């Protein structure tokens, strides 16, 4: 089907900038390894040196296009001579997981990490570099989640015209997706519909249940049960949205096929798969009734009451509208879905639900906290995760995890570029020398940011004038980033500041970008807006005061981490507030791009 959401292979190439082969857990004595893309071989083979890890970077990166075959030719020594083996890779999986910046494969206890990018100019040398003890560098927790569950997999059921396409477009931040179809069999329920604008979800589409037509009912039941039996979380179905248009002129809501499907769920025939009934086009009901109270009463009468009576309150429902004035309804749908996925499918799948969606920034912050608490945020209460690592390595992995969770449309990987990492690192120290603020006064984050944006835009000499960031992006000014991590008050404060600063810069970027493809200009506006706003100084002051009050080093426990998380959450912006703030933003062109170090013309 002609759509940006389809089952076709991605059309963009990938670029391989590096490779790590770790055979420390294998009995094989690997001597060398060579990348092979079709008949093309890497310029040089990786040679085994000290330790049992092989590493190589490619400059320029090797191009890997859709349809190419990728393998690793490994040469290892046995007691009776030299042996060779070709390790094959699944190209489709590599393209799916490219947003993580790397693809991981384990073959007979040999761990292979391929550094990937959609941009031939992005190098991953920092990420692939060995740590100070000669072992592989710190691996992002999101990499583990993406290996287990690389995408949120959802089945959307509904008749043509019910609004499935708009629902998917807005919920997952894609454009011109066509999820519905008019001809039976035009799209198989087994087809994986994906979008190049958001590769963190997979859609399965099904037409609704027509009166007297049971074939599709059996197709849907069979599909759900087949997916239930699959062993891997990435292949299982994570949620189902059953969509109905709110009937504005009467008519029966639950027809025979729908009742049979809901009965299957109520009686346990479909297992624990979360099913949410979605009543669409709520805005049309409001227009018809004019008075919200009357619309709610009608909704209760014609939709909610029949559903709850039939299902005995066992299946949740959400009323939605894709109208820009009712975005909070989509947020409720995503929140309900995420909660059910967490309860009935698994935490990794619920994290992917939050990552895939693009309507509720609060869920991105929630997922970021879940990811952080698993491993690296524990450094706020213990030195174990970062023992013997440089501060730069520690910040690097913290940064990568947080960026991955926000899932911006960032095909050039600007948010993981060295320049942006250095901007964030330098801000930790730069703000500390600024004016102090009252730690007991909590500013409204959203209005503070909008005010800063307005000031930046009004100061531009013209619509095409570059946005100049106040901190150097070309070099790390702070000398402490090169030191080995040690648990100390300054180190802990820097980690806390970096985590909150980056999270709030990304929340600001969410505000200004509105799900569009990122440019460096947009990122710089978000960075400068946060940096220049009173909120940034308040955050640093509150962290310093909080650290003194909590005596963090003396109380390195879970309660300390929980208090820090509460501080982070206090700056979150809800969906309704986000919509209101966007209405207050001044007009500014963020589609054009510009260098990180652009300067204003005199």
Descriptive report:
Helix content is 41%, strand content 16%. The protein is built from 19 helices and 15 strands. The strands form three sheets. It has a six-stranded mixed sheet with strand order 11-12-10-13-14-15. Strands 2, 3, 4, 6 and 7 form a five-stranded antiparallel sheet that branches. The protein has a four-stranded antiparallel sheet with strand order 5-1-9-8. The longest helix is centred in the last third of the chain and has 25 residues, at 489-513. The chain starts with 13 loop residues before the first strand and ends in an 18-residue tail after the last helix.
Low-confidence stretches: 122-136, 178-185, 433-437
Strand content: 15-25%
Share of helical residues: 40-55%
Name the structural class: alpha/beta
> What value does the Rg take, in angstroms?
26 Å
Number of strands: 15
Give average pLDDT, whole number. 81
Number of helices: 19
Largest sheet: 6 strands, mixed
Shape: globular
Gap between N and C termini, in Å? 51 Å
- If strands are numbered along the chain, what order do they take across the biggest sheet? 11-12-10-13-14-15
């Amino acid at each position: 089907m002609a759509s940006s959401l389809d089952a076709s292979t991605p059309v963009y190439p990938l670029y391989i900038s590096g490779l790590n082969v770790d055979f420390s857990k294998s009995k094989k004595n690997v001597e060398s390894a060579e990348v092979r893309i079709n008949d093309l071989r890497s310029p040089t083979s990786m040679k085994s040196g000290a330790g049992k890890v092989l590493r190589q970077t490619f400059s320029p990166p090797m191009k890997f296009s859709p349809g190419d075959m990728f393998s690793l030719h490994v040469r290892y020594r046995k007691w009776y001579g030299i042996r060779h083996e070709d390790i094959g890779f699944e190209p489709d999986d590599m393209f799916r997981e490219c947003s993580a910046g790397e693809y991981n494969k384990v073959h007979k206890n040999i761990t292979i990490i391929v550094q990937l990018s959609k941009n031939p100019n992005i190098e991953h040398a920092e990420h692939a570099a060995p740590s100070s003890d000669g072992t592989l560098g710190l691996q992002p927790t999101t990499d583990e989640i993406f290996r287990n569950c690389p995408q949120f997999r959802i089945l959307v059921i509904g008749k043509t015209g019910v609004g499935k396409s708009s629902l998917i477009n807005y919920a997952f931040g894609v454009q011109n997706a066509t999820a519905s179809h008019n001809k039976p069999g035009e799209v198989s329920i087994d087809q994986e519909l994906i979008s190049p604008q958001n590769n963190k979800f997979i859609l399965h589409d099904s037409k609704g249940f027509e009166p007297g037509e049971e074939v599709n009912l059996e197709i849907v039941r069979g599909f759900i049960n087949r997916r239930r039996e699959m062993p891997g979380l990435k292949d299982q179905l994570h949620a189902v949205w059953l969509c109905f248009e709110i009937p504005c002129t009467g008519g029966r809501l639950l027809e025979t096929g729908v009742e049979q499907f809901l009965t299957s769920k109520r009686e346990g025939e479909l297992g624990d798969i979360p099913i949410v009934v979605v009543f669409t086009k709520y805005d049309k009901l409001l227009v018809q009734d004019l008075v919200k109270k009357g619309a709610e009463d009608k909704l209760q009468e014609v939709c909610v009451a029949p559903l709850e009576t039939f299902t005995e309150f066992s299946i949740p429902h959400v009323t939605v509208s894709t109208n820009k004035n009712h975005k909070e309804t989509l947020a409720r749908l995503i929140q309900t879905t995420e909660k059910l996925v967490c309860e009935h499918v698994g935490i990794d799948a619920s994290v992917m639900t939050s990552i895939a969606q693009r309507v509720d920034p609060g869920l991105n912050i929630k997922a970021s906290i879940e990811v952080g608490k698993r491993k690296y945020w524990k450094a706020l209460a213990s030195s174990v995760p970062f023992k013997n690592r440089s501060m730069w390595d520690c910040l690097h992995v913290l940064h990568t995890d947080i960026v991955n969770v926000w899932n911006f449309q960032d095909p050039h990987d600007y948010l993981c570029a060295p320049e942006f990492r250095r901007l964030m690192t330098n801000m930790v120290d730069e703000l500390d020398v600024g004016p102090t603020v009252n730690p007991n006064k909590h500013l409204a984050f959203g209005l503070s940011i909008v005010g800063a944006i307005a000031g930046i835009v009004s100061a531009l000499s013209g619509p095409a004038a570059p946005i100049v960031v106040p901190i150097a992006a070309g070099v790390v000014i702070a000398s402490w980033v090169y030191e080995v991590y040690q648990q100390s008050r300054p180190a802990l404060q820097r980690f806390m500041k970096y985590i909150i600063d980056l999270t709030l810069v990304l929340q600001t970027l969410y505000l200004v970008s509105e799900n569009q493809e990122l440019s460096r200009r947009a990122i710089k506006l978000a960075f400068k807006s946060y940096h220049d706003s009173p909120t940034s100084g308040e955050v640093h002051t509150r962290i310093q005061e909080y650290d003194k009050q909590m005596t963090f080093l003396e109380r390195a426990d879970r309660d300390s981490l929980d208090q820090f998380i509460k501080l982070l959450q206090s700056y979150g912006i809800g969906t309704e507030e986000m919509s209101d703030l966007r209405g207050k933003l001044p007009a500014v062109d963020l589609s054009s791009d510009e260098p990180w170090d652009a300067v204003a013309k005199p």
